[in-house]
Amino acid sequence: MPRKQPALGPLQLKIMQVLWKVGSADVTRVREELRGESLAYTTVATMLRKMEERGLVRHSEEGRRFIYAPAVGEAEITRSMSNDLIDRLFEGSLAETVKHLLHSRDVSAEELDELEAMIRQRKKQK
Length: 126
Fold this sequence. Notes:
The chain is mainly α and about 130 residues long. Strands 1-2 form a two-stranded antiparallel ribbon. The mean pLDDT is about 90. β1 and β2 (about 65-70) form a beta hairpin. It contains six helices and two strands. Helices cover about 60% and strands about 10% of the residues. The two termini are about 20 Å apart. The chain has helices at about 10-20, 25-35, 40-55, 75-90, 95-105, 110-125, and strands spanning about 55-60, 65-70. The longest helix is centred in the middle third of the chain and has 17 residues, at about 75-90. α2 packs across α3.
């Protein structure tokens, strides 16, 4: 069974998305990639250190610089966060989640076709 990842805060998720995109980076590069965020160098450095303590990232050293890389994959975090959301908001019901999304968002005919195809495929697997 995969380990349950704790939910990430908005900044932690943005930092993880940067690292998944670039692979590895020092604090300066992560800060630069967080375009539109007005964050001090020390804020990003502190967040990366805390994320490393939680096992989300790891670092190597190049001279005096710490180079950070993701320690968990995007799929693992996506699965953990979406499962947590479904559990908390919809009492674990996938049907209620999908029902909510279908009623609260614009869904194109192409997306509906794709969903139907996924459901048919999943039924074949059962």
